[in-house]
Sequence to fold (619 residues):
Amino acid sequence: MKLHDIAVNNLRRRKAKVFFLVTGLLVGVAAVVALITTTSTLEEDIGHKMDEFGANILITPKSEGLSLTYGGLSLGGLSFDLKEISQEDIAKIKTIHNAANIRIVSPKVFGVFEREGYKALVVGVDFPSELSLKKWWKINGNAPEYEDDLLLGSEAAEHLRAKPGSVVDIKGETFKVSGVLETTGSQDDNLLFMYLPVSQKIFGKEGKVGMVEIAALCKNCPITEIVEQISEKIPTAKVTAVQQVVAGRMDTLHSFRKFSLGISGLVLLVGSMVVFVTMTASVNERTREIGIFSAIGFRKSHIMKIILLEAFVVSLLAGVAGYVVGIGVTRALLSFMSDHTIHFYWDPIIPVGSVFLAVVIGLLASLYPAMTAARMDPSEALRTL
Amino acid sequence: MSYIEARNVIKEFGDGEAKVTAVRGIDLSIEQSGFISLMGESGAGKSTLLSMLGGLLSPSGGQIVVGDIDIYSLKRDKLADFRREFMGFIFQSFQLVPYLNVLENVQLPLAVTHHSESDKKSLAFSALERIGLKDKAMRLPNQLSGGEQERVAIARAVVNEPPILFADEPTGNLDSRNSADVMNLLKRLNSEGQTIVMVTHSRKNAEFADRIVEVADGVIRLAETMNPVKCACA
Fold:
């Protein structure tokens, strides 16, 4: 017979009371687990969607530039010592430390198209990458499938009086318009898109690219690190993060996280109060027993040990059960909140954290009642006998 | 020579106009292996006096000396150790811990001692054997009769063989047959050398002691030495 036998026997033989105590704490833990896991999963989902939505890193050839202005009047500028990006450099992007975060690499080659006084920019792209990068594009007709397919911006199509199925000659080569973009309101409206190798060939830029747009999944990695890593791999290129995009995304995610942490804190506070009130009531109910323990010679520390040990076991059970219930609630919530399948985000810190949290809250909430019980004069308890 | 001594003990409860003096300067001396009954009306101060003698309630004035130790000069934990080692308590209404079985209840005072687990068990079984309840060791208190519960309470009080036993109305909830059994058990323990201080309303039970002290209005009204009832221990 040791002190822990008293605690264990009390829990074992007062199942209804244990159930009530565990449920009180479980609700708090489950709510926090559900809230954190749901927000993390949604955060991850939103992060992925936002990362997929356009480029956030730009690679351009490095050059020495000189901006010419006088009296506030811009006289244009000139570039000299222009370095070039080769096709081999692009392969190096996939070898950086954070390669796993690189989702889309979309190289581009530029050339000029001219017909009857109308000038437009021709962009050679890798269509699968470009279409993944620009999910907002809506194509009237079909996306290019063959080497001689052409995709036109809306204004370019208007100027050329072209529609899906039309034929356009560029640099002596004949191309078929497979589709026309709906108006985007961006510079894409004025562009002609064709397959990258074809554009390289007709503009005499084989093995070279003019620009690379990259979409990196940067939710869990600082974009500046990816930029530095690419710069190291391609020293001839200027790598820049599209700051406003990155900052905007991070702000949104931070706001989301702050909101979830705020709500979690609130739930936790309420949960702690529930445990505190329940543990205090539980200790108060046991005044008689505590009086007996004290009268027969248990020290203050002995009584505290019994109560805190019970609180530890109850909290441990509540932590484990709370995690399981919380995850169940999360899965139900996610399936209810979204029509598409959201990939469940499992963080190994959550189970450990929820048990730890439950135990810490359980012990802290029980500390005051335990101290009160331990300080109780045995005669006070005897008076209640 | 006195073993337990109350010296001008006073106990007051409350403050100001609500102050109540439960014990008003009692001097009392109890010899080793003595058996003393404290009698009196309800509210006379006898249970308060018993609590103070047993180290459960510090007096507002005066001293309680056990052996040669002024027990209320001890710090709280030391006083708890002293109670565990030297005193056993039999409370009103048995006061067994409901979720512990008979064996565990009896072992309770041993839970914080350095005895090995097997020693604790054998001491508890031996105490249960003395009160004739060894065969009910695994039962829960609510599976026992009132008389049996009282005997378990006595076994718990004597399991670590304390030299002093305090009993507050030990037969208060028992019928006459069970009362007689319990009183005989206490008398037997006394004859084995245990000092017993008992609070009772029953004159018949009080006569098992070798001295009856009658308390009224917080003072000793009468102390009489008895020719105590012989133990029907066989």
